[in-house]
Design brief:
The complex is a heterodimer of chains A (about 110) and B (about 110).
Chain A lengths: L4 E3 L2 E5 L4 E6 L7 E6 L6 E6 L6 E3 L2 E5 L5 E6 L8 E9 L4 E4 L3 E6 L1
Chain B lengths: L4 E3 L2 E4 L5 E6 L6 E7 L6 E7 L2 E5 L6 E5 L5 E5 L8 E8 L8 E2 L3 E5 L1
Parallel strand pairs in B: 2-11
Antiparallel strand pairs in B: 1-3, 3-8, 4-5, 4-9, 5-6, 7-8, 9-10, 9-11
Classes of the chains: A mainly beta (about 110), B mainly beta (about 110).
Chain lengths: ~110, ~110
């Protein structure tokens, strides 16, 4: 199946710092979703990207397609302790609402 | 809160047994997808139900089966449980079968011993 690779695998940052992570695939996606997952919980949708070239924001989070549309980026500004968790990217499989998920980026925020 | 609820939250079963997991989709959503998430990995797609019919399946054996009911709630059934079936099972609901936003429940943690 499709492989989505996320980098970095893990990040340790100081509270207040900005964060940037990315996700790459071997295929072009027309939709990207970014999720955050806390331990033992289901993923929570952060941002949905439908239009290449546009920056989509949700509070301190921004995301966009990469130039090739085989990648996507998520940025978090002024990180806070509750940003701790695992961030997953997801792209659609075939033409249905079936998503491939990335390998995840684990974020730790040090107060 | 997504409005997607799953039950039970935790379950312990013995190898060879059968298990049924349940999911209530978000109000207004007619599509339910099931995912398996092993520890330390991203969710893996099992199958999707759209308007009570299976609408796509991932690389899972036939002993993984499902149902969707007229109220769009759904069940995931796993027969002949194996130790490797131990995972967090996630249900996601969405409107329509296209690549739109999917909202997840809190998951069911299944442990097979």
């Amino acid at each position: 199946g499709q492989q989505l690779n996320q980098s970095p695998q893990s990040m340790f940052i100081q509270e207040g710092e900005d964060v940037s992570m990315n996700c790459t695939s071997s295929s072009i996606f027309n939709t990207w979703l970014w999720y955050k997952q806390d331990p033992g919980e289901g993923p929570v949708l952060l941002i949905a990207l439908y239009k290449a070239g546009e920056l989509t924001s949700n509070g301190r989070l921004t995301a966009q397609f990469g130039i090739t549309r085989k990648d996507s980026f998520l940025n978090i500004s002024a990180s806070i302790p509750s940003d701790v968790g695992i961030y997953f990217c997801a792209g659609p499989q075939n033409t249905g609402n079936q998503f491939y998920f990335g390998t995840g980026t684990s974020l730790t925020v040090i107060p | 809160e997504t409005g997607v609820t799953q039950s039970p939250t935790h379950l312990i079963k013995t190898r060879g047994q059968q298990v049924t997991l349940r999911c209530s989709s978000q109000s207004g959503h007619n599509t339910v997808s099931w995912y398996q998430q092993a520890l330390g990995q991203g969710p893996q797609f099992i199958f999707q139900y759209y308007r009570e019919e299976e609408n796509g399946r991932g690389n899972f054996p036939p002993r993984f089966s499902g149902l969707q009911f007229p109220n769009y709630s759904s069940e995931l059934n796993v027969n002949a449980l194996e130790l490797d079936d131990s995972a967090l099972y996630l249900c996601a609901s969405s409107l329509g079968w296209g690549p739109t936003e999917a909202f997840f429940g809190q998951g069911t943690r299944l442990t097979v011993v």
